[in-house]
């Protein structure tokens, strides 16, 4: 793989061993073109794999880049890949579900590329909405197969004011999250783009109603 544009354009990126489905060159170029200028924006790459999406963001001037990947077997190649960047790119080796539940830093752009057979894509988006990762202007992009049917609007994971009920556990095995740092009623899909046999859905926080 190669970086498609920006200051690192043409630089080679290695693929880690094992099963990996890197984002197509055409898709990466199209997505970042649609995002527009991202210089200085923070970028979170969930299910990062090779780290190529974070590197595409770095190549275009993003800052505060974090990659999340649970497979520690990819560590050597990921560290080799991010070494091309001048920016400080951090990697968290942990399950994405745990990162969403526990991380307290917010991001301007969040990209998710879960395995196509991952069953809990909707729950990921619900828990993202209920996490501390979002601001009112965060943009969320999720890559998923055409066979999946993600809704136009997404509500938060089950919440109980001030507490989490003992039975409040979602399908990805983590307690339902109470916080909603974006102050949003939900996520709304603003776009959906087709790439081969897959979609990339674009979501943004839906403004909460005035108190």
TrEMBL record:
GO molecular function, one term: nucleic acid binding
Entry superkingdom: Bacteria
Matching SUPFAM superfamilies: S-adenosyl-L-methionine-dependent methyltransferases
Coiled coil (residue ranges): none
Keywords: Methyltransferase, Transferase
Gene3D superfamilies per UniProt: Vaccinia Virus protein VP39
InterPro entries: DNA_methylase_N6_adenine_CS, RNA_MeTrfase_RsmD, SAM-dependent_MTases_sf
Pfam families named in the record: Cons_hypoth95 (PF03602)
UniProt keyword Repeat, yes or no: no
Entry protein name: N6-adenine-specific methylase
Naturally occurring in which organism (per UniProt): Spirochaeta africana (strain ATCC 700263 / DSM 8902 / Z-7692)
